[in-house]
Amino acid sequence: MKKLILLTAFITTLALFANAQPPYKGQRIEALKIAYITQVLKLTSEEAQKFWPVYNSYFDEIKKVREANKDDELVFEEAALNVRKKYKSEFKKVLVDDIRVNKVFKVDAEFREELKKELKRRLQQRQQQQKTATAAPPTKP
């Protein structure tokens, strides 16, 4: 429970920080993702220098597999599994520990889930603010 609270606080803080950063939304999300994965995997600076090029290649390959198999989820899952198997040894060279290597494959889904929760929370907050603004009677000076 503490980890979840800390994780949520971390993502929220990063989201607030990222709002002051580049105007392109994808870049902000990418920065959050990098920070999140780095923290969860507890990457040292040396590991991070080796990890990110491998991870970016892995992620690009997964995206290509998704694009090629948009209409067939089973074929996508099989192809994605083959990509994961291919990159497992590459991640092992950088991270050494099997536990951390397995986390690489889980952390993406965790990040997407946290991102969805945060976006949903913000949408609800915005809707609530709009309701409050329209429900308040206009004031006369």
In short:
Helices cover 85% and strands 0% of the residues. It is mainly alpha-helical and 141 residues long. The chain has a domain at 29-114.
Task: Name the structural class.
Answer: mainly alpha
Q: What is the percent of helical residues? A: over 70%
* Count of DSSP-assigned helices: 5
- Total beta strands: 0
The rounded distance between the terminal residues' Cα atoms is: 49 Å
**Percentage of residues in strands:** under 5%
Order of helices and strands: HHHHH
The overall pLDDT, averaged over residues, is 84
The profile of the biggest β sheet is: none
Oligomer: single chain
Name the overall outline: elongated
Residue stretches low in confidence (pLDDT < 50, at least 5 long) are none
Whole-number radius of gyration? 19 Å
List the helices and strands and how they pair.
Blueprint (H helix, E strand, L loop, with lengths): L1 H18 L5 H17 L3 H24 L4 H23 L2 H38 L6
Helix pairs in contact: 1-2, 2-5, 3-4, 4-5
Explain what this protein looks like in three dimensions.
The chain is mainly alpha-helical and 141 residues long. It has a domain at 29-114. It has helices spanning 2-19, 25-41, 45-68, 73-95, 98-135. Helix 1 (2-19) packs antiparallel against helix 2 and helix 3 (45-68) runs antiparallel to helix 4 (73-95). The longest helix has 38 residues, at 98-135. The mean pLDDT is 84.
Give short descriptive properties of this protein:
141 residues, mainly alpha, elongated
